């Protein structure tokens, strides 16, 4: 990770993006999306991850995160990415209805072969470019960006209509994850 993108202050909020290698559209099936949701919930309950905003798209995940524990934020991120990588690849391998199985696993295997850190598959790109949210203006900008992602992609007309996002929480509804709110 470059010097520009590092978590320097553990008490700050950060905008991060986790991207699937080669931008593979994995999260088109609910069973794969559910792995992400349950893994985020686990990190909230067991590791002290605070989620302020999120949006899961077909090939990437945007988050505004902080922490409320002794765990370092980059360690929480590392553990989340490692666990979900293994869990998602296994889910793809064992999914008899996955028409894209061979293609996806070949991409993950080739990406893993180019990496000294991965044994079988590489699911996520290495970098996640944490951007410290040091002002209200930057927080508002990132929050709007996250929530408008599904609108810009043409998935929904209104951001709060997208289930896999915190936009509905910010518009008075109830979403899939427990949130801390940006005031």
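Sequence proposed for the structure above (183 residues):
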């Amino acid at each position: 990770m470059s010097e520009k993108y590092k978590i320097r202050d553990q008490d700050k909020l950060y905008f991060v993006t986790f991207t699937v290698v080669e931008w593979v559209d994995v999260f088109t099936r609910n069973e794969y999306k559910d792995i992400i949701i349950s893994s985020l919930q686990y990190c909230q309950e067991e590791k002290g991850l605070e989620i302020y905003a999120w949006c899961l798209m077909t090939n990437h995940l945007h988050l505004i995160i902080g922490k409320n524990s002794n765990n370092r934020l980059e360690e929480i991120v590392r553990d989340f990415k490692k666990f979900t990588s293994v869990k998602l690849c296994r889910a793809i391998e064992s999914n008899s209805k996955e028409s894209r199985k061979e293609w996806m696993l070949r991409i993950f295997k080739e990406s893993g072969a180019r990496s000294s850190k991965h044994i079988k598959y590489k699911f996520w790109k290495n970098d996640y470019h944490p951007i410290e949210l040091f002002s209200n203006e930057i927080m508002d900008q990132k929050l709007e960006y996250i929530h408008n992602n599904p609108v810009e992609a043409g998935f929904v007309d209104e951001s709060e209509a997208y289930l896999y996002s915190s936009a509905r929480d910010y518009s008075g509804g109830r979403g899939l994850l427990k949130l801390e709110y940006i005031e």
